[in-house]
Amino acid sequence: MRYRVKAITAGGQVGTLDLDARDAGEAEQLARRQGCAVLAVAPARMTMSLGGRAAQFPLLLFAQELLALLESGIAVVEAIETLVEKETRPLVRAALETALERLREGRTLSAALAEQPAHFPNLFVAAIRASEKTSDLPEALRRFIAYRNQVDDLRDKIVGATIYPLLLIGVGALVILFLLGYVVPRFARVYADYGGELPWLSRLLLEWGQMIEQHGVLALAIFLLAGVAAYRQLRRPALRARLAEQLWRVPRLGERLRVYQLARCYRTLGMLLRGGIPIVPALEMIEGLLAAALRPQLAQAVVALREGAALSWALHSHGLTTPVALRLLRVGEQTGNMGEMMERIAVFHDEETARWLELTVRLAGPLLMVAIGLLIGLIVVMLYLPIFLLAESIQ
Question: Which of 237, 229, 291 is CA-nearest to residue 43?
Answer without folding.
Answer: 237
